[in-house]
Design goal:
Pfam families: 4HBT_2. The protein has 141 residues and is an alpha+beta fold. The chain is elongated and about 45 Å long. The protein has a single domain (4-136), classed as Thiol Ester Dehydrase, Chain A (Roll), CATH 3.10.129. 26% of the residues lie in helices and 34% in strands. A hairpin with a 3-residue loop joins strand 4 (73-83) and strand 5. 21% of the residues are buried.
Length: 141
């Protein structure tokens, strides 16, 4: 299993009145993590969009474990949890600087054509990308 890591310096604007990171910001960090993972594997999401494809989120689950605060550095760990014919599930751990888990999450995505939102298999668009996801995914069939 391949794991990508990306550090995020927590900005004041990402915190709420209690001084902790507002929960929705974790979703933004997950997107940053996914983008970094894809780039680390040698591909680009922007390239998919340029070719007329999108990868919308179809399911999301997140568990908050330990609050993060302004001035800390969060490490976003991202991997391919599962990859099937039409769906890809990414896994995430968001860590404090000392390695304490702040949150864990899974997001499920389907690749679709931009013009009609019909699902399409990654194998038809980019066989090398498809093969790489099968190589690095955590859950092997």
């Amino acid at each position: 299993m391949f794991v990508s890591e990306k550090e995020i310096e927590i900005r004041y604007a990402e915190t709420d009145q209690m001084g902790v990171v507002y929960h929705a910001n974790y979703l933004v960090w997950m997107e940053i993590g996914r983008t970094a993972l894809i780039q680390d594997l040698g591909f680009t999401y922007a390239g998919l969009e340029k070719e007329g494809y999108l990868s919308p989120v179809t399911d999301l689950s997140i568990q908050y474990k330990a609050a993060m605060r302004y001035g800390q550095v969060a490490t976003i760990r991202t991997w391919v949890e599962t990859h099937g014919r039409l769906r890809t599930t990414y896994g995430y751990e968001i860590l404090h600087e000392d390695g304490t888990v702040a949150a864990t999450a899974l997001s499920e995505h389907v690749l679709v054509k931009k013009d009609n939102f019909r699902p399409v298999s990654l194998s038809k668009i980019d066989p090398a990308w498809e093969a790489k996801y099968h190589e690095v995914k955590r859950v092997q069939a």
